[in-house]
């Protein structure tokens, strides 16, 4: 779809850096109007200066219901509609289960799961009223196959996948739908803390661009590219590969 003709509006959380920022720039280049919601807005603000008609920064912590309500209202005031929501904001705190506090577990759920749910709660009535909308919830391979040291993070991604599949069923007679988006492993600030070899990490701008290219897709699961799709399929079919590739996390603990 040519977004410049239709003036489609995308709300994108966690848009200030990483894969979200890559999506933001690619969407703007394709003519979308993008509302970037984040706790920091320096990068979105710079892009807004050069693209005042198509980029807006909204200061929003997705764990604060009032922030979410205010940001969604402001987007509707500014642009009258929300065609697509991308729940991309997330936090990742590496740590073994017995070393993490319940507050740390609560925090990762507050951002990665309940933040997304709250955005959907606020945006859905607008999508229904305008008779259309797509909601993309960004997941992770960890949510599919698990990862030592990421019990909380992986659980939030497993939860958002099940939530999305169930909500998708609930919406199946409506003009609004929701999907699960799978990025490829990328060298972002949070992923870099996991110590993957550089050769396994993609450029976040490139991953964001690939996902932006699929922004109008309504498939149940959207993969950034075929490598991500095949990689996740193989990891599910051959669990020993996941055991082997994550062994280094346990070795580092025993040292
Ligand atoms: N990178 C990967 O390899 C990879 C792989 C699979 C899936 N994913 C998923 O892809 C998405 C993007 O990941 P990424 O690696 O690009 O992440 P990132 O670089 O860590 O960026 C996440 C963004 O979300 C923002 N954010 C954090 N807490 C927030 C909150 N409470 N409210 C609003 N914004 C908040 C962050 O702001 P601050 O940093 O200022 O807090 C940051 O701008 C995530 O859903 C992640 O789970 C990533």
Can you name the CATH architecture? Answer: 3-Layer(aba) Sandwich
Compressed to H and E, one letter per element, the order equals HEHEHEHEHEHHEHHEHHH
Distance between the termini: 53 Å
Low-confidence stretches: none
- Tell me the CATH topology: Rossmann fold
Percent helix, as a range, is 40-55%
Number of domains: 1
Look at the helices and sheets and give the structural class.
Answer: alpha/beta
Query: Main sheet?
Result: 7 strands, parallel
Give the name of the CATH superfamily: NAD(P)-binding Rossmann-like Domain
Amount of beta strand:
5-15%
Number of strands: 7
Q: What's the overall average pLDDT, rounded?
A: 95
Radius of gyration: 18 Å
List the total number of helices: 12
Shape: globular
What does this structure look like?
The chain is of the alpha/beta class. It has a single domain (3-254), classed as NAD(P)-binding Rossmann-like Domain (Rossmann fold, 3-Layer(aba) Sandwich). Helix content is 52%, strand content 14%. A 7-stranded parallel beta sheet has the order 3-2-1-4-5-6-7, sandwiched between helices. Helix 5 (102-129) links the parallel strand 4 (84-87) and strand 5 (133-138). Helix 4 (65-79) runs parallel beside helix 5 (102-129), helix 5 runs parallel beside helix 7 (151-170) and helix 10 packs across helix 11 (239-245). The longest helix has 28 residues, at 102-129. Bound molecules: NADP nicotinamide-adenine-dinucleotide phosphate. NADP nicotinamide-adenine-dinucleotide phosphate (NAP) binds next to helix 2, helix 5 and helix 8. The site of NADP nicotinamide-adenine-dinucleotide phosphate has 30 residues, from helix 2, helix 5 and helix 8. This is SDR family oxidoreductase. Keywords: NADP, Oxidoreductase. Belongs to the short-chain dehydrogenases/reductases (SDR) family.
């Amino acid at each position: 779809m040519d977004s410049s003709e239709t003036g489609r509006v995308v709300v994108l959380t966690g848009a200030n850096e990483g894969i979200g920022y890559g999506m933001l720039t690619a969407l703007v280049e394709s003519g979308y109007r993008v509302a970037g919601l984040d706790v920091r807005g320096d990068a979105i603000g710079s892009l807004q200066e050069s693209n005042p008609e198509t980029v807006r920064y909204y200061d929003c912590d997705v764990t604060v219901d009032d922030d979410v309500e205010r940001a969604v209202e402001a987007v509707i005031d500014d642009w009258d509609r929300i065609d697509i929501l991308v729940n991309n904001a997330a936090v990742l705190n590496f740590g073994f289960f017995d070393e993490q506090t319940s507050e740390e577990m609560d925090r990762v759920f507050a951002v990665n799961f309940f933040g997304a749910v709250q955005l959907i709660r606020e945006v859905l009535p607008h999508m229904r009223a305008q008779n259309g909308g797509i909601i993309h919830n960004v997941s992770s391979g960890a949510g599919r196959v698990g990862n030592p040291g990421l019990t909380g993070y992986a659980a939030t991604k497993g939860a958002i996948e099940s939530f999305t599949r169930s909500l998708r069923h609930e919406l199946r007679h409506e003009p609004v739908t929701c999907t699960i988006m799978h990025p490829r492993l990328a060298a972002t600030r949070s992923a870099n803390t996991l110590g993957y070899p550089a050769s396994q990490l993609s450029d976040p701008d490139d991953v964001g661009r690939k996902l932006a290219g699929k922004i109008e897709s309504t498939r149940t699961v959207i993969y950034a590219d075929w490598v991500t799709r095949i990689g996740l399929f193989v990891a599910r079919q051959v669990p020993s590969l996941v055991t082997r590739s994550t062994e280094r996390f346990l070795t580092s603990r025993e040292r």
